[in-house]
Amino acid sequence: MKAFSVSKAVTALMLAGLVLLPLYSHLTGNIFILTLFTRIIILALAAASLNLIMGFGGMMSFGHAAYLGIGGYAVGMLAQEGVGSGFIQFPVALAASATYALVIGALSLRTRGVYFIMITLAFAQMAYYVASGLARYGGDDGLTVYKRSDFSGLINLGDRMQFYYLCLACLLGVIFLIWRIVNSRFGLVVQGLRSNEQRMQAIGFAAKRYQLVCFVISGTMCGLAGALLANNTDFVSPAVMYWTRSGDLMVMVILGGMGTLFGPIMGAVVFLLLEEFLSQITEYWALIMGPLLLLIVLFGRGGIMGALGRAGRG
Amino acid sequence: MAEPLLRVEKLVRRFGGIIATDNVSLEVASGELHAIIGPNGAGKTTLISQLTGHLEPHSGSVSLAGRDITYLPAYRRCALGLARSFQITSLLLDFTAADNVALAAQAHAGTSFRFFANARKEKGLRDAAHAALDRVGLLHRADVVVSRLSHGERRELELAVALASKPKLLLLDEPMAGLGVTESQRMVKLLQELRKEVSIVLVEHDMPAVFALADRISVLVYGRVIASGDPAAIRQNEDVKRAYLGDQHVVTHHG
Amino acid sequence: MLLVVEQFLNGLQFGLLLFLLAAGLTLVFGIMDLVNLAHGSLYMMGAYFAATFAAWTGSFLLGALMALGATLVLGIVLEMTALRHLYGRDHLDHVLATFGLILFFNEAVRLIWGPAGLALPLPAWLTVPVPILPGIHYPAYRLAIIAVALLVALLLYLGVMRTRIGMLIRAGASNREMIGALGINIKLLYTLVFGLGAALAGLAGLMQAPILTVQIGMGENILILAFVIIVIGGIGSIRGAFLAAIFVGMIDTLGRAFLPNLLRQVLSGAAASTAAPALSSMLIYLLMAIVLVVRPEGLFPANRR
Hints:
The complex is a heterotrimer. Chain A is 75% helix and 1% strand. Chain A is mostly helical. Chain A has one domain (6-313): Orthogonal Bundle (ABC transporter involved in vitamin B12 uptake, BtuC). The longest helix of chain A is centred in the C-terminal third of the chain and has 27 residues, at 207-233. Chain B is of the alpha/beta class. Chain B folds into two domains: 1-81 and 167-255, Rossmann fold, CATH 3.40.50; 92-165, no CATH class. Chain C has helices at residues 2-32, 39-57, 60-81, 91-113, 124-127, 140-162, 164-174, 176-181, 186-208, 218-233, 238-266, 269-294; strands at residues 129-133, 136-139. A two-stranded antiparallel sheet of chain C has the order 1-2. The chains are: A mainly alpha, B alpha/beta, C mainly alpha. Chains in contact: A-B, A-C. At the A-B interface, helix 6, helix 7, helix 8 and helix 9 of A face helix 2 and helix 3 of B.
């Protein structure tokens, strides 16, 4: 009974599709789809990292796009200053994201609930304004990354297919890590805190410490997505940190299914394809997307993964 | 007399103009089952919250085995050997019974900053969980998600969780609340067993249970301890009878 | 001196505007426990309505009044069709659903009014500088904003503290079941409160419109400021929102005006002009961080049990 379920089958299909996509693109000569899916995979990585704190940890961060910007700016700023090596750029991107997460997390975790949502949102907006104020690095207009991160021949980020597989490998690697983390001692504590903080305190866990570490892990993972994103677009601007992007990431997580391993990937694929599809039909795609979100919230409990689970049982 | 396990001295807690805990002093000796009773609104919950670390007193002190814990947060007290059950069941509803207990064991078995190995496959933790579940008679329900357990089973699970942290002192906040007659009897039996192993502070409304179990009883009225002594002495105490006007027959009948 | 007084008044005026926005947000949250991100959209709609109606009628005042009514109606319709169904649900649901509403409103505005912004010209009598101190003049319109916002704040205070409806509102904030038990029509009360919040947001938007361009997304940045104010002031507290709003308005305005000069005295010219814009936009968030460290519940948490 457990061996086969609809959600597992769909997940497997989706992963197979992601792995084989470059082949399809190569055979048909459809480069657009490869570019589109590279972006989808990078944002799925960001959504997966958000899911770690939101779905498993119960911390509703509305400022996750900040890490996309921090990771991206780390790459862009270093490139502009003449440091082109990915072996420096990526570690710096991760370290910068981790540091930001540590500070913001330590402050935000002093509060809970709605306060937490508002505060993470506000701090991300601060990051947005700071980036807009960086005149040396393009300010409002953003910063062009003239040369992609250089991994000294190990992998060529300029090659579409290699870059696609790098992003996919990062995504799957992060999903693997999250899988290990949520089943570890640490992961159980974090999930226990989501479920009932009072109880966890009473059995001897210092709640904030675990939540903060989880917050930092998540931010670091998202910083990786940011570094990849800057390479993908050859450009980074404050707009990647704008709060609607944080909202998009939340939507992907919810849409796919909070607290499930593969839900965020599913959510990112569906959300971004839907956006692409709607924007081809009408210029005013958000007019449909907005109310759709409202309907999903009102009627779509548990996201796609939840629905697939019900389909499997029913 | 040796240093008591729990010593509460001149504890005061106010809410606005109301004094909810009025100069309360208590001592619980090692091995003792000490019951705290009192009519509704007597300040039992406020007192318990200060013992568990959910509320800070305005003055006075609480010490556990000679160590001042007045201002320690809840999780530190737990590490020092103070475990509690909640008046309103407070469990991880979306976890299994075994997970709930295993987490309590985990809190006292080395660091929880382990990120890679599967905690549900750690034999030590699982064994400890199963032992505690067995202790309260819930072993057969180990892999059931808590939200599917009955109220009575959840009360028992609360106990198992508290036991899993191998406490020196167990604070039980109305463990019988909401239990039926047979369930209550089982709980009393269970507590009879447990008191041989661990010191217990019991806050309870169920007078027959209290008088059957307690070594000593403290009576709280309007935030003050008006009497403290063994069950026989408390039953005879005039102040207690007056405070318990409505419940008086309960006190005398069932003892 | 002239500049200081002027910037001080600007800060006050901005703070009062922020208060109008934050008050609605905090009322709706305090009473219905609803997090409404689309509050900023109502602010934007107020501005668009005012620009449109003023152009139709040819009168600024008439346009403003009609816009006020229109946002009130819009708020009520929004509450009855969509938001009502969100009461009692998870805050995350609120965030997502109202995030969807923002997308909808922004796009609807783009469809109806086009992507370019609108301007709301002031009538001549509001553009004259008024002498406020010997030798110091201040634009009449900005003074008018201060006066209107202060009046509304006063009415709000009296309304909440002294009237029967206000008592119900306060009772609702602290005890939802109680008003139900009193036999008061909760649904209607909630709809009215939401409408009031919407009208306040609309008022802020239409008053701000002549100063800034009326454009898509104008409500979002200011909404986040309103969040900061609520966090600083304490959720659900009108008094907290008022003081925090003034505070934030002042700090933001004065920071932007004077920080560059102050920095220039400490740092070299180039460094100062690089750091100043980033630093001055960070000021209020730093303020929020400090408040969080000192008082996580905000400066004036509403009394709740």
